[in-house]
Amino acid sequence: MFTRAIAGSLCAIGVASAQGAISFTFADPSSGLEVTHTAGAAPDGVSGLLTYNNQQPLDLIVYSDEAGFAGATYTDATLTMEVVVGPAFGLGGFAAAQLGDVHFEFRDMNGDLLLTGDSGGGGLSVIGGTSGGWTTNSTDDGGGLVMEAHGALLGELQSASLGQLIAAFDAAFTLTNITPVASVSGDYFTSFEANSAFTGTANVPTPGAIALLGVAGLITRRRTRG
């Protein structure tokens, strides 16, 4: 029991003290309106659904403050997004809505997964009916967002001796050039199209944390054998 407690403490200390931030972004592509909000299109038949044109190429940029990770840019990547937009309210030139289930995934030019995000909530806000954005994060209020690295992105992290993405997670999609002007009808947003850009952040365990996790596992195995 005591050995397991030591191992658990090592894990907790290692992960807490040896995390590094990693960020993701893409700029708004120059052509067309990529985001569509369709009123009443969610599975419940009442809420709206935000989607992204997954035929629109974009450049997904990954960067970090961690030494040894030079970052990566995935050209001609694509984004698939499905965000349930729930009840909304408007006050003057400001309107906001609760988000339901959120799913987004980035793929490279070959169609292989790079990054996925899943959440059970968040918020959409619109100012003046023409610009705004939606956000979700890893806190309970934010929807419990979880992001995972896949394929070439995961390989890049592992090559830099970094691990899989861990909390805290945050995802923010800006909305610009909203057309037609977004408004609240009844209790929900009306349909519209928009441009969008993305920023996201997560933590990764650094080499020190990964090594400490290995030590904790070795202690546990030796105790079990004894």
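^ that was protein a. below is b, sequence first then the tokens
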Amino acid sequence: MDERMGIKDFESDGCSLFLDGTFDNPELWKECCHLHDIAYWRGGTKKERELADLAFKQCVEKKTGNPHLAELMYQAVRAGGEPYFPTWYRWGYGWPLGRGYQTLTLKEEEMVEEKLRRFRERKKE
């Protein structure tokens, strides 16, 4: 990966292709999806993806108290989030397609942190 290409600005659409919550609480688990999107945007190793998906499952279960929903959402991200799919929600979607599972270099980690800092600043405005 050529580090000069960099990582795209962080974007999150909430729970890609799924609801962000219930009818009574339309953003009940959206925070879980947002945190999961950060992990998927930055990418990394296969193990990092596994840990991000497990954290996502635990977050959804904690927010909802519904282990069945958490398992369904977990299985969906496991099945659909491979880095080789040409989707906007794949593992490592901030990087150009084809990166796959790859440890971020120190320079790439710095790029990620800078992009997230800018994203958070924009959200404050």
